[in-house]
């Protein structure tokens, strides 16, 4: 599989629409368009590292979440897919890096 970092060495489907990939030097997750849209609703100003120029350009650059920072947003937004301790760490990271991820829009709870 092609990735913005190089050809993949490993590919692991974590859930419908969430695929983890590694390359010789980097890796990350690729989301389906539906999963990406779900994140965009909560973090409308966020742009992935790849779309900011952190990898070779691609038409689907907003679907690639690199392993160092961006994947924390995937873990935070889809906690049902990941172990609880990983979710806690990712959520803390996202909340403490608002300048990078943007402000989260949380839907109001209905009464």
What would you note in describing this structure?
Helices cover 31% and strands 17% of the residues. It is α+β, with helices and mostly antiparallel strands and 111 residues long. The protein has one domain (10-100). Strands 1-2-3-4 form a 4-stranded antiparallel sheet. Helix 2 (71-77) packs across helix 3. The termini are far apart.
Count of domain modules: 1
Strand order of the largest sheet: 1-2-3-4
Q: What value does the Rg take, in angstroms? A: 14 Å
What's the rounded overall pLDDT mean? 88
> Helical proportion?
25-40%
Q: Structural class of the secondary structure composition?
A: alpha+beta
Reported for the largest beta sheet, the result is: 4 strands, antiparallel
- Provide the β-strand percentage band: 15-25%
Oligomer: single chain
Distance between the termini: 46 Å
Quick one: overall form? globular
DSSP, total strands: 4
Low-pLDDT segments: none
């Amino acid at each position: 599989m092609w990735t913005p970092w190089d050809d993949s060495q490993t590919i692991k489907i974590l859930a419908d629409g969430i695929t983890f990939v590694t390359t010789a030097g980097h890796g990350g997750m690729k989301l389906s368009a539906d999963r990406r849209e779900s994140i965009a609703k909560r973090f409308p100003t966020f742009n992935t590292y790849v779309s900011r120029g952190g990898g070779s350009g691609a038409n689907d650059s907003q679907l690639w979440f690199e392993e160092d920072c961006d994947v924390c947003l995937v873990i935070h937004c889809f906690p049902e897919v990941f172990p609880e301790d990983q979710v806690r760490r990712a959520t803390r990271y996202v909340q403490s890096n608002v300048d990078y991820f943007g402000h989260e829009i949380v839907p109001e709870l209905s009464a």
